[in-house]
Amino acid sequence: MLKSEIHRATVLVADDDKAYRCLLKDLLRDQGYQVVCVEDGEEALRISRSKAIDLALLDVMMPYRTGFSVCRAIKSDPKTCLIPVVLVTGLNNPEDRIQGIECGADDFLNKPINEQELLARVGSLLKLKHFTDELEHAETVLFSLARSIEAKDPYTEGHCERLSQYSVALAERLRLPEEQREALRRGGIVHDIGKVAVPEHILLKRGPFTPEERKIMETHTVIGERICAPLKSFGLALPIIRHHHEKLDGSGYPDGLKGDQIPPLVRVLTTVDIYDALVTDRPYRKALSPEDAFAQIWKEVEQGWWDGALVEKFQRLLEEGSAGRYTAPKLQVFDETN
Question: Among 81, 83, 180, 250, which has the highest number of CB atoms less than 10 A from its own CB?
Answer without folding.
Answer: 83
